[in-house]
Amino acid sequence: MKLILLGAPGAGKGTVAKLLTELDGSVQISTGDILRGAVNAGSDLGKQIESIMKAGDLVPDQLIMDIMEERLQQPDCEKGFLLDGFPRTIPQAEALKELLERLGIELDMAVNLQVPREVILDRLTTRRTCSNPECQAIYNVKSNPPKVEGVCDKCGSPVIQRDDETVEAISHRLETYNEKTAPLIGFYEKEGLLTNVDATSSQVVVDAIKEKLGL
Ligand code: AMP
Fold it and tell me: Could you tell me which of 16, 55, 135, 197 has the fewest CB atoms within 10 Å of its CB?
């Protein structure tokens, strides 16, 4: 399947993407994970974007498009991909449309994960992430804590609160979402690709997508 997952930070795009990869071998492509990996590795790219990410601002469109142009041509994307956190702006959506046309790739749909703001705020402030750039497993102190406090079940690395998950950074990310990313809902509606889904439960989203795709 070839999907775009739309929705505010904390809507559950990453969790849904992970569940979907188990269905047909499609790969999850999270620009946030790629960028955090670069920051943690201390690469030139990482140094360039660290302060932008910490403040909850968006990384420049061209930089994201360069990363995605390369990523979408890797062989593991042939079976399908789940775009998680990309595109994030109208210029990214337009550039993606042009890129996919050039590569001869057709999207199945753009799924908009709808979650009430109170749920989003609660999820983000209680979310914890594995600090290992290769892992980045996601936990929640209330609903899904690691077996040993502060230690990743999967790789044993420290589990931390992301720099951009302080209350200030979260409210800034939500403002950025409303201003820059929410307009993508109208964009994909016009393209005839939009599906809105109630995303209070990730499994309900997965079931709705399966039904739409006839899986
Ligand atoms: P996420 O893990 O998707 O919440 O992304 C974390 C941070 O990475 C965002 O707050 C942005 O700073 C940056 N980021 C991720 N994806 C994009 C994108 N498509 N365009 C611009 N910045 C992005």
Answer: 55
